[in-house]
């Protein structure tokens, strides 16, 4: 059984499918893909994922992409490892409801602010002719457009709408955490991992004007509880870029 995980820095999508590997104690090879060098659009990587995006899981040659799909794949492929998905249909439905919510109503909106602030700087740092060539290599139309917009800057209206979506999500999560300790109930699940990776871990830092500590104290407590989990802490430590390339994590083999 060999698992390979291709990823960038431990934030957003790359973190989201890294956390379960550590939580479940799976052994895997970690392959760092440098988005700053546009490695995700290089032929060697597009041969692995034709969409030219990280992360990617390679399980004995089976390629799995898209984080929500990858994370449920772990549950199905490694049934003996500690579960991150409820066993009962109602619990599964609650978890999938939150995953759908994060995937459709949260991820892209936090991401827009991230791209505006960080990717825009990278994109503007590339000369015009070179930038056109880089964009032409991007397989997905939506990503090509996103890179172009990041270079010119997102509109104030789009950014304001994204902020509104993040506020709605924060309030919704805060309400849920008044009813259950974790998003889908009593158990830490893939839903918590999803919201944490895309929003919860950075929302206070990224949106200081939202006064998260006052507006959503339960969310802050939930975030700290999540950060303190050994599996999450180990995934966050993947940040070490002093040893890029191949690294092997030895967990328990399931
Ligand atoms: N729906 C995909 C989205 C993946 C995605 O957006 N990956 C980002 C990193 S967080 C990426 O590869 N961005 C670089 C690019 O698109 O050029 C998933 O869930 O895995």
Unreliable runs, pLDDT <50, ≥5 residues? 239-246
The Rg value, from CA coordinates, equals: 18 Å
Main sheet? Answer: 5 strands, mixed
The name of the CATH topology of the largest domain is Glutathione S-transferase Yfyf (Class Pi), Chain A, domain 2
- Report the mean per-residue pLDDT as an integer: 93
Q: For the largest sheet, list the strands in their spatial order.
A: 4-3-1-2-5
Our measurement of the CA-to-CA distance between the termini, rounded to an integer number of angstroms, reads: 9 Å
CATH architecture designation of the largest domain: Up-down Bundle
Strand content: 5-15%
User: What ligands does this structure carry?
Assistant: glutathione
Tally of helical runs: 14
List the topology elements:
Layout: E1 3-7, H1 12-16, H2 19-23, E2 28-32, H3 43-46, E3 56-59, E4 62-65, H4 67-77, H5 89-105, H6 107-124, H7 128-136, H8 141-152, H9 156-177, H10 190-200, H11 203-206, H12 212-215, H13 217-227, H14 230-236, E5 246-249
Parallel strand pairs: 1-2
Antiparallel strand pairs: 1-3, 2-5, 3-4
Helix pairs in contact: 5-10, 6-8, 6-9, 9-13, 10-13
Glutathione binds at residues 8, 12-14, 35, 40, 53-54, 66-67, 143.
């Amino acid at each position: 059984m060999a698992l390979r995980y291709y990823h960038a820095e431990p934030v957003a999508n790359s973190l989201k499918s890294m956390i379960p590997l550590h939580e479940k104690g799976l052994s895997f090879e970690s392959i760092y893909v440098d988005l700053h060098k546009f490695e995700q659009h290089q032929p060697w990587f597009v041969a692995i994922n034709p969409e030219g995006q990280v992360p990617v899981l390679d399980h004995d040659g089976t390629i799995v992409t898209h984080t929500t799909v990858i994370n449920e794949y772990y549950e199905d492929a490694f049934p003996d490892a500690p579960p991150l998905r409820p066993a009962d249909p109602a619990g599964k439905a609650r978890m999938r409801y939150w995953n759908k919510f994060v995937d459709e109503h949260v991820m892209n909106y936090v991401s827009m602010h991230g791209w505006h602030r960080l990717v825009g700087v990278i994109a503007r740092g590339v000369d015009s002719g070179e930038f056109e060539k880089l964009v032409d290599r991007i397989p997905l139309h939506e990503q090509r457009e996103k890179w172009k917009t990041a270079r010119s800057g997102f509109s104030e209206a789009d950014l304001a709408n994204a902020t509104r979506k993040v506020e709605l999500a924060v309030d919704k999560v805060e309400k849920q955490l008044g009813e259950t300790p974790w998003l889908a109930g009593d158990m830490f699940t893939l839903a918590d991992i999803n919201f944490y990776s895309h929003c919860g871990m950075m929302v206070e830092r990224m949106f200081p004007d939202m006064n998260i500590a006052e507006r959503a104290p339960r969310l802050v407590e939930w975030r700290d509880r999540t950060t303190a989990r050994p599996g999450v802490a180990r995934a966050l430590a993947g940040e070490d870029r002093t040893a890029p390339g191949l690294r092997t994590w030895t967990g328990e083999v399931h």
